[in-house]
Amino acid sequence: MSIFTCWRVLPAALFVLSHLLFPQASFAAEKALNILYTGAMRGELEPCGCSPETQSGGLARLSGFISDQKAALGPYILVDSGNTFAPDTAQGRLKAEAQLRSLGMMGYDAVAVHISKAPFDSGFTARLVKEHRVATLPKRGAIKALKGGLKVNISSDARLLKKGMINVLISGKPVGELKAVKGWDVVITSSGEVLEEPVRSGRTTIVSGYPKAEKLGILTLKLDRRGKVAGSANRWVVLKKDAPEDPAVRAVLKEYDLKVAALLKEEELKPVSGGLYLGAQSCVECHEPHVQSWKATKHALAFATLERAGKSKDPECVVCHTVGFGEEGGFLSLKSTPELANVQCESCHGAGREHSVDFGPMRVMGKEICLKCHTHENSPLFDYEKYLEKIKH
Ligand code: HEC
Ligand code: HEC
Ligand code: HEC
Ligand code: HEC
Questions:
Q1: What is the structure's pLDDT at 6?
Q2: CA distances (Å), origin 248, targets 143, 242, 243
Q3: What pLDDT, in 10s, does the model give residues 327-346?
Q4: Contacts from 135-138 at CB under 8 Å and sequence distance 24+?
Q5: Residues lining ligand 4, judged by CB closer than 6 Å?
Q6: Residue 119 and residue 112: Cα distance in Å, rounded?
Q7: Greater confidence, 25 or 158?
Q8: Distance between CA 154 and CA 369 in Å, rounded?
Q9: How many Cβ atoms sit within 10 Å of the Cβ of residue 150?
């Protein structure tokens, strides 16, 4: 080997050696793009906190995470794949407003508001989108993003594939149907299916927004020297109670709580006189010991829990933290029916008016009655025998 060929070979040899010795370093020479994605949020602003150990997600934590990690995330795009809203009710609209305000603040690159199972009239959505500067994905068309020198094409129209760019298709379709998609690097669906791992179909990677944004998905695309996607890895970020919150988004959620509370018009809440529910105080004269033992349980404090959380006027919370909410003669508000706040005797035994007159039978107790409130979602640790032990009287 002449000295010249040796000089020519040396850099290549060093390059190979460095790859062998420092695989990380060689990786850094290539590029990567992080795709942060949500989808199927369905109006969830934050977990209720019923079971702090297991409940995760929420817009304030999501925003806190993204702003804390900005530098570490490197070039990234942030996308919501749709199915974003709760059904069209007065409260659903307040949720949509809080969501779009928050997504706007977080700087989402694309939000697929048109992929939604419960769209509001278009004027309502359009007004919010404009007011909060949300980058919405057009129904026909694409959003082009330039991140760290990488060109990304985001669209929900499968015909709008762009050569020479990283192609991200947004969809609301089930994963089974998406396997037919060709040519796109990534497909993000908001179908609500839980895909713990991405599904690979040819050179396409399919991922799915975690329902209710309980987890943030991060799909890292590894790009080769020509900028083509050479591989990918997915991870989930689970943000629990201890995760730092973005105070600005927290303020949006506080405002939402106040607006929800204002939906409740005291003057319209006239308690039915002679209603079916009485409250524990009416049971005292004949069941003193039961009342005493109930007072020592957390059920007797369930309303204070909501007051602490600023949610004592939120019907979506009140329903399980009071007696008979939503039924005739049940809890309406603290002002009009204070005797029916908290989980009380009649939450389990049924309405007591007739019984307190004729001592007729009360509802037969069983596990099913607990499960009305101790759902998998709100009480994931529920175990009938163990829980019963704690409330026995
Ligand atoms: C489907 C019924 C249900 C709904 C709806 C519900 N909760 Fe609860 N909540 C429960 C149950 C059951 C528990 C007790 C869970 C356990 O300990 O296993 C609980 C516990 C809690 C706790 C924890 C109390 C403690 O002692 O630490 C908080 C906080 C709470 N709920 C707040 C809320 C808020 C806020 C909402 C509305 C956004 C809400 N809940 C809606 C059933 C419900
Ligand atoms: C009307 C809704 C409702 C029903 C029905 C209900 N619970 Fe609860 N339960 C709650 C709520 C709300 C809490 C949380 C109270 C708090 O701390 O604010 C709770 C808390 C508890 C706790 C305290 C958990 C802890 O962390 O110590 C136990 C135990 C419990 N419930 C047992 C039962 C059992 C057993 C039944 C059925 C026999 C039952 N509950 C029926 C709503 C209900
Ligand atoms: C969380 C649900 C729950 C609440 C709230 C509750 N109970 Fe019960 N109660 C039960 C269950 C379950 C049983 C049967 C198991 C037992 O004996 O503790 C029972 C049993 C009873 C019995 C018959 C027990 C016996 O000695 O034969 C009476 C009377 C009674 N409850 C009254 C009350 C009164 C009064 C209150 C309110 C102060 C109340 N309960 C609140 C679930 C509840
Ligand atoms: C004026 C007295 C009186 C009042 C008020 C009263 N009870 Fe009773 N209750 C009784 C008597 C007496 C029995 C026993 C009846 C029997 O064994 O047939 C009884 C039995 C019960 C039982 C167990 C019987 C069964 O059907 O399994 C429950 C549960 C109960 N009461 C709940 C309540 C609740 C909840 C209230 C308040 C809303 C209440 N009671 C108010 C007198 C009363």
A1: 46
A2: 27, 17, 15
A3: 999 999 999 999 999 999 99
A4: 135/108, 135/109, 135/110, 135/111, 136/110, 136/111, 136/112, 137/110, 137/111, 137/112, 137/113, 137/170, 138/114
A5: 278, 282-283, 285-287, 345-346, 349, 352, 355-356, 359, 361-362
A6: 12
A7: 158
A8: 48
A9: 17
Average predicted confidence (pLDDT) for the chain:
92
* 365-383 pLDDT tens trace: 899 999 999 999 999 999 9
299 lines ligand 2 (CB under 6 A): yes
Average pLDDT over residues 275-304: 97
- Any idea how long the chain is? 393
Give this prediction's pTM. Answer: 0.90
In the chain the domains, ranked by start, together with CATH numbers, are 20-247 (3.60.21.10), 269-391 (1.10.1130.10)
Ligand 1 environment, Cβ below 6 A: 48-51, 298, 305-306, 309, 311, 314, 316-317, 319-321, 373-375, 378-379, 381-382
